[in-house]
Amino acid sequence: MSKIVLHQWEISPFCRKVRKILQYKKLNYVTQNYNGLLALKVSKLSKAAKLPVLEYAGEWIQDSSDIAEFLEHRHPQPALFPSDPQQQAQALLWEDWADESLYWYEVYLRFMDQRALQLTIPLLCAGRPQFEAWIIGSLAPIIYRQQLRSQGIGRLSRDRFEAKFFQQLARIEVVLSHQPWLASHELTIADIAVAAQLEEILRTSTLKERILAYPKLANWLTRMNY
């Protein structure tokens, strides 16, 4: 089989999601990063100008969910999706929630918190010239804060935001108090999608200790480091 190349922003939770899928399926791959102003080249890989994009034996697959389905078809074991229809539906609902809702909590915690932002910008520009960090550091907060306001979560006060965020974590804690994984008796795409978002939050957020204070959640995150 030809080499698998993951074209990524290394700090992206969606790219982390694909890396976790590749690792779970024990597939060898290499990464191509588009940090800093290299992000301008992404439009040549993706019509949506977004990453991840997976290069696989001459095929180019965009979007983390589409990549997950593609890899499941090519490498069905170990399985990402439960065979039981109800559990599969639950797993896909978790994945969609992680991608479309939990993601915005991750963005808020990176771009609405000055201390987190100081950690985020160097990661966005890792391996690139210093002047690119100045450019990205000036533009990225403006862009993402506008997106957060348009989405709605960026209009919340910090206290209200944190209350909603920890309410979500408390719900995950309840689920994990009754079963070892989010959607099934085994690890599925649900666990990978949610963990990818939370791991990126933990990477830069000042709330790390409070997040890991949930014992079931903390144990589950440890098990996700397979």
TrEMBL record:
Organism: Anabaena azotica FACHB-119
Span of domain GST N-terminal: 2-79
Record's protein name: Glutathione S-transferase family protein
Database matches in Pfam families: GST_C_2, GST_N_3
Listed SUPFAM superfamilies: GST C-terminal domain-like, Thioredoxin-like
Domain of life: Bacteria
Domain GST C-terminal: 84-226
